[in-house]
Amino acid sequence: MNSTTITSPVLAARGIRKSYGRGTARFDALDGVSLEVYAGQSIAIVGKSGSGKSTLMHLLALLDSPDAGEVMVGDTDAKELSVKQVNRMRNEDFGFVFQQFFLNPNATVLDNVVLPLTIAGVAAGERKARGMAALQQLELDDKAKNMAVNLSGGQKQRVVIARALVNNPKVIFADEPTGNLDTMTGALVEDILFSLNKDKGITLVIVTHDPELAARCDRQIFIRDGREVGSLDNAGAAA
Amino acid sequence: MKTLDIIGTAVDNTFRSKLRTTLTVVAIFIGAFTLTLTSAIGTGVSNYLDIQLASVGTTDVLSISQTAEDAPDLGDGPLRYDPTRATADGVPSPEAGFSTGVLTESDLDAIGNTRGIRDVNAVVSLTASYIEYDAKGKFQVAISENAELTKADLAAGEQLTPSDNNQILLPASYLETLGLGAAEAAIGKVVTIGIANYDGAMHEVHATVTGVQNLTLLGAGVRLNQALTNELFAAQTDGEPTAYERGYFLASAHFDPTSNDDQVAAIKADLASQGYTAQTLADQIGVFQTILTGIVAVLNGFGLIALLAAAFGIINTLLMSVQERTREIGLMKAMGMGGGRVYALFSVEAIFIGFLGSALGALAAIGAGSIISNVLANTVLADLQGLQVLQFAPGQVAGIILLVMVIAFLASTLPARRAARQNPIDALRYE
Ligand SMILES: Nc1ncnc2c1ncn2[C@@H]1O[C@H](COP(=O)(O)OP(=O)(O)O)[C@@H](O)[C@H]1O
Ligand SMILES: [Mg+2]
C-alpha cells in the first residue's frame, strides 16, 4: 500500500477549527488541524474520548463545515461546492459507518443496505441486485429479508458496512467501527474493512481509540484536545 | 430519491405508529364523513328540484301577482293610510271599486294585452265539497291551484288539454278510496264533484279522469283543466251580488314556448313596469334553491370545522413523527438526501393520512347515507316518488377527498420544514 506517493490527496484539511456553543459556553472542539488523505490509503484518527476525532471526521466527510480553515476535496475548496454537489458526493463517493448502527429496525436488512441507492434514485431492480451483492460480500445474504431489529451486534455492524459499500464509494468513513463489538467480532469487522481497502482500493478514514486497530492503518494521526499532537506512518502496515 | 420511493416510504412510515395514525385518521374521518353527507343532502334535494322542474315544469307559463307594496321595516310605525292604495289584503272589497293588492278583471286585461302574452286566466280558489265515483261514497277533495305551472308526474293516462270537455287528473292515492281500482282502469271514468254556490246550494259537475298522477312536492291535490275550472267557478260564484268587484291573488299566463331567456326577461320587465310580478316555475324553484344552498353551506361549515380540528391533529402527529425519526432523518441527510426530498417525505405522509381518513370517511358516508336514504324513501318520504334525500356525486366526493388532502398538505408544512432543515450531525448525535 504505497499510494502515498506523488498523487494529490483526495481529501485534505488545512488548519480547520470548529467550536460549539457561544460566549462562556463556547468550546473549541478542533483548534487548527491539518491533514491529508490520499487515495487508497487507510488513515486512523486516534485520540481519547472527547478529543475531537468525530468532529474532524464529520468535517472531512462534508457533513459539517469548519469555522475556519479549509477542507479540500481534490483541488476544490468544499466551500465552493453547492449543496447539491455535496449531497451527491456524500451519496456516491462516501460510505459511512457511524458510532451507532443507525439501522431502521422495522425495515428489512436489504432495505437498510440499499438506502444510499434509494436516495440516489436507483431503480428497484438494480437496487436489489447491488444490495444482495454487498450482503453476499459480508456473508449476510441469507439474512436479507430479516428485520434489522432481529440481528446480533456483529451482524448489525456487517449490515452497516454493507450499506457503506453498496454504492461503491471512494472513501469509507468509519467512526469507532469496533467500539460496540466484542473482540472476536471486532476483529472480523476490521478484517472486512481492510480487505475492502486492499482489494478494492477504497480509502479508509477510521476514527478509533484502539491502538491495535490504529496500528493496522497506513497512517495514524493523534489528536488531543482538538489539536494534532503527532502522526505515524506505518510503512509496513499489514492487513 | 424517486417519487415512487418517497410515496412508498411515506406510506410505510404512516403505519409505523399505528395507534397514532389511527387516531389522526379518525379525526379526519369524522370531518370527511360529515362533509360528504351534508353535500350529498344538498345534491339530493337540489337534484330532486331540478328533476321536478325538468319533468313536470312548464316553460311557457308565468304566475303573475300584484307587486307587493313596500312593507314597513321592523320597528317602524305603520304606513300612512292611502285610500287609492287601500286593500283588504286578498279579500275583494266591494266598496273600493278596485283593490290594488289583488288582480281585478282590468288587471287581467292589461296583462293579456302585454306583448308576448298569449292568454291569461285568473287562478281561482275553488272549495269543492266532495268528489264521488259511481255512487260509491262522497269524499273530501283538495284542488291544486295554479296547476298550469307544472305538468303532472303521471302514473297513467295523459296530461290535461285545453279541451272544452271537463278533464280531471287524480292523485294515485285517491283511486282506491273512490273505488276506481288500478290506475289504468281509472282512465276515462267519469267522476262527480259537488260544490256549494254562494247561497249554499249544492251543484254537481261531472268530469272525465284523463290521468293519474304521482304525488310530488308541487301539489298533492286533483288537477282540473280550464273548462272544468270555469264550470266549477261558475257554480261556486252562482248567486253572488252582481255589484261585486272580484279580485284574484294570482293569474297564470301563457307565452310563446319558443321564447328565449331574453324574451322572457323582456316580458317580465314589461309586466314589472305595469306593477305586476311575474315568475316562471324556474324562478320559484330558484328561491327554494337559494334557501337550500344556504342551509347546505351552513352544514358544510360544520364539516369544515371538524376538518380544521383534524388538521391540528395532523400537525401534532407529524411533529411527533419528526421527533421520533430525528436520527433516521439525520442518516438520510448524511447519505446525501436533499432537504426538498425530506420535506416531500413528510408531506406525502400527511397527504396519505388525509387520503386515508377522507376516503374511509367518504366511503362510510356513502354506505350510511345510502341506507338512510333508502329507509327514508320507503317510509317517511315514500309518497314523494323520485326523492333520494342523499345523493353522492362522484365528482363531489372526489373533490372532498382532494380538499382534505390539500388541507393535510398545508398542515404538514410546519413539521416537514422542521425535518428538512435538520442538521445531519445534530440529528446523528441526538440520543
Ligand atoms: N453539537 C455539539 N455541541 C456542543 N459540544 C459538542 C457538540 N458536538 C461535540 N461537542 C463536543 O466537542 C468535543 C469533541 O467531540 P467529538 O468530536 O465527538 O469527540 P470524540 O469523537 O473524539 O469523542 C467533545 O467535548 C464534545 O462534547
Ligand atoms: Mg466520537
Automatic annotation (TrEMBL), chain A:
<dbReference type="GO" id="GO:0005524">
    <property type="term" value="F:ATP binding"/>
</dbReference>
<dbReference type="Pfam" id="PF00005">
    <property type="entry name" value="ABC_tran"/>
</dbReference>
<keyword id="KW-0813">Transport</keyword>
<keyword id="KW-0547">Nucleotide-binding</keyword>
<comment type="similarity">
    <text>Belongs to the ABC transporter superfamily.</text>
</comment>
<dbReference type="InterPro" id="IPR027417">
    <property type="entry name" value="P-loop_NTPase"/>
</dbReference>
<dbReference type="InterPro" id="IPR017911">
    <property type="entry name" value="MacB-like_ATP-bd"/>
</dbReference>
<feature type="domain" description="ABC transporter">
    <location>
        <begin position="11"/>
        <end position="238"/>
    </location>
</feature>
<dbReference type="InterPro" id="IPR003593">
    <property type="entry name" value="AAA+_ATPase"/>
</dbReference>
<keyword id="KW-0067">ATP-binding</keyword>
<dbReference type="InterPro" id="IPR017871">
    <property type="entry name" value="ABC_transporter-like_CS"/>
</dbReference>
<dbReference type="InterPro" id="IPR003439">
    <property type="entry name" value="ABC_transporter-like_ATP-bd"/>
</dbReference>
<protein>
    <submittedName>
        <fullName>ABC transporter ATP-binding protein</fullName>
    </submittedName>
</protein>
UniProtKB/TrEMBL annotation, chain B:
<dbReference type="Pfam" id="PF02687">
    <property type="entry name" value="FtsX"/>
</dbReference>
<feature type="domain" description="ABC3 transporter permease C-terminal">
    <location>
        <begin position="301"/>
        <end position="424"/>
    </location>
</feature>
<comment type="similarity">
    <text>Belongs to the ABC-4 integral membrane protein family.</text>
</comment>
<feature type="transmembrane region" description="Helical">
    <location>
        <begin position="291"/>
        <end position="321"/>
    </location>
</feature>
<feature type="region of interest" description="Disordered">
    <location>
        <begin position="67"/>
        <end position="96"/>
    </location>
</feature>
<dbReference type="Pfam" id="PF12704">
    <property type="entry name" value="MacB_PCD"/>
</dbReference>
<dbReference type="InterPro" id="IPR003838">
    <property type="entry name" value="ABC3_permease_C"/>
</dbReference>
<dbReference type="InterPro" id="IPR025857">
    <property type="entry name" value="MacB_PCD"/>
</dbReference>
<feature type="domain" description="MacB-like periplasmic core">
    <location>
        <begin position="21"/>
        <end position="213"/>
    </location>
</feature>
<dbReference type="InterPro" id="IPR050250">
    <property type="entry name" value="Macrolide_Exporter_MacB"/>
</dbReference>
<feature type="transmembrane region" description="Helical">
    <location>
        <begin position="21"/>
        <end position="42"/>
    </location>
</feature>
<keyword id="KW-0812">Transmembrane</keyword>
<feature type="transmembrane region" description="Helical">
    <location>
        <begin position="392"/>
        <end position="411"/>
    </location>
</feature>
<keyword id="KW-1003">Cell membrane</keyword>
<keyword id="KW-1133">Transmembrane helix</keyword>
<feature type="transmembrane region" description="Helical">
    <location>
        <begin position="342"/>
        <end position="372"/>
    </location>
</feature>
<protein>
    <submittedName>
        <fullName>FtsX-like permease family protein</fullName>
    </submittedName>
</protein>
<keyword id="KW-0472">Membrane</keyword>
